[in-house]
Specification:
- Helices cover 30% and strands 27% of the residues.
- The protein has a 6-stranded mixed beta sheet with strand order 5-6-7-3-8-9, sandwiched between helices. Strands 2-1-4 form a 3-stranded antiparallel beta sheet, covered by helices on one side. A 3-stranded antiparallel beta sheet has the order 10-12-11.
- It has 10 helices and 12 strands.
- The chain has 2 domains: 2-203, P-loop containing nucleotide triphosphate hydrolases (Rossmann fold); 211-276, no CATH class.
- By secondary structure, it is α/β, with parallel strands linked by helices.
Length: 277
């Protein structure tokens, strides 16, 4: 589905490259979480993937296409929900009428169900909707396109708590096996029950590319009263004790606390390297 090889990119020739010989392969049938600190280049990487930016060196292949060529045969199978967006002063109904035809697999029934779930007014001008309502419509439209690649940049920003719950529900229940979803987010808790693979960017490289199943098989995440012990790889104080990461007991597994794992790796925890690389 996606193959990135030796990708190098910078915004100005005299600047240090944002990415340097970046490599990654992603397959269909999964939801991938793209994580990194502010300024790590998450949004830039997403734009490189869909052809809005062009690499200086290396290759990006999406469904056998080079996204920088902007070929219609690829664009009809890719949908990008940006954190910042502009919508025209037309109704939801007219937006659908004008844009749905660009996506051959568009599912009208699914879209109307999602609009109903999100309680969106079809006849109201998009520009008169709140930011959260606009975001809910874009997410609904994206899922209805049935594109094989869906790229969502901070999709839960602007959503209230009930809407975040609906977002998780509709995303988990609306995907086909031949689709790939990439979610870039700082709101890890909003999507950690959806994510199946984690990519973590730092200093121009992927410092982690792991399936959550592999992580849960090798690391244990738990809350304890004390963070003392030779088996504690990382700990954070929380109400009532400590959240810790420790080696997993053979044959066991636990729910992965992605935020805790991100904090541990982002802080340069050396003990975890052999488990996540």
């Amino acid at each position: 589905m996606i193959a990135i090889k030796n990708l190098t990119f910078n915004y100005a020739k005299k600047q240090q490259p944002l990415f340097n010989e970046l490599d990654c392969e992603l397959q269909t049938g999964s939801i991938v979480g793209l994580l990194g600190k502010n300024g790590a280049g998450k949004t830039t990487l997403l734009k490189l993937m869909i052809g809005l930016l062009f690499p200086q060196q290396g290759e990006i292949s999406i469904l056998g296409h080079q996204p920088s060529k902007r070929q219609p045969s690829l664009l009809q199978d890719v949908f990008f929900v940006s954190e910042e967006f502009h919508l025209p002063p037309i109704s939801i109904k007219n937006f659908i009428k004008a844009n749905a035809a660009f996506y051959p697999r568009f599912d009208q029934d699914l879209l109307h169900r999602l609009i109903k779930d999100f309680e969106l007014p079809e006849t109201k001008s998009l520009q008169k909707l709140s930011y959260g309502q606009k975001k809910k419509f874009l997410i609904s439209f994206a899922l209805a396109t049935k594109c094989r690649l869906l790229v969502l940049d901070e999709p839960t920003n602007g959503l209230d708590i009930p809407s975040k719950s609906i977002f998780r529900k509709v995303l988990a229940g609306s995907l086909d096996e031949d689709q790939l979803v990439i979610i870039s987010t700082h709101q890890v808790k909003d999507v950690e029950n959806l994510i199946e693979k984690v990519l973590m960017l730092d200093n121009g490289k992927f410092i982690m590319q792991k399936d959550l199943y592999d992580i849960s098989s090798s690391l244990n995440f738990s809350t304890v009263s004390s963070a003392e012990g030779e088996d504690v790889l990382y700990s954070e104080m929380v109400p009532g004790g400590y959240r810790i990461i420790s080696p997993q007991i053979e044959g066991s597994s636990s729910h992965v606390d992605i935020e805790l794992l991100f904090n541990a790796i982002a802080n340069g925890n050396e003990k975890l390297k052999k488990y996540v690389q």
